[in-house]
Amino acid sequence: MGEATVSSTTATLVTVAKTCVNTMDVGNVKFTVTLKTLETWGLAGRAYIDFPNYYRPDLGTWVTCGVEDTAGAAVEALFCETRWDHSLVVYGPTGAALVKDTAFVIRVSGVNMND
After folding, report:
1. What does the pLDDT look like over 69-107, one tens digit per residue?
2. Which CATH architecture has domain 3-112?
3. N or C: at which end does the chain have fewer Cβ atoms within 10 angstroms?
4. In the chain, what are the domain boundaries?
């Protein structure tokens, strides 16, 4: 789907590569993230991901999130919520913090691919 570099309000840069996997009408969206400026992302951290509602897939309201290593092994379930503007807020892991220059994957499951 492409690659983008996004900047947060604190000028923390992350590299995001988005891929979609569709099984029937419900699928997963995975974002490969590498922290560039932020030293760690842990319990107090949040990631904001915009999902414009005029593009597919439609994020929906009953998604679940998790963090994986780049090999696809699950590391931890993450709390996430969909906001009114179709953005997604993913709260940082409660276990070990993720560190700068180490790639990890944010998995969003239960995405409505066809509506």
Report:
1. 988 888 899 999 988 777 889 999 999 888 888 888 888
2. Sandwich (2.60)
3. C
4. 3-112
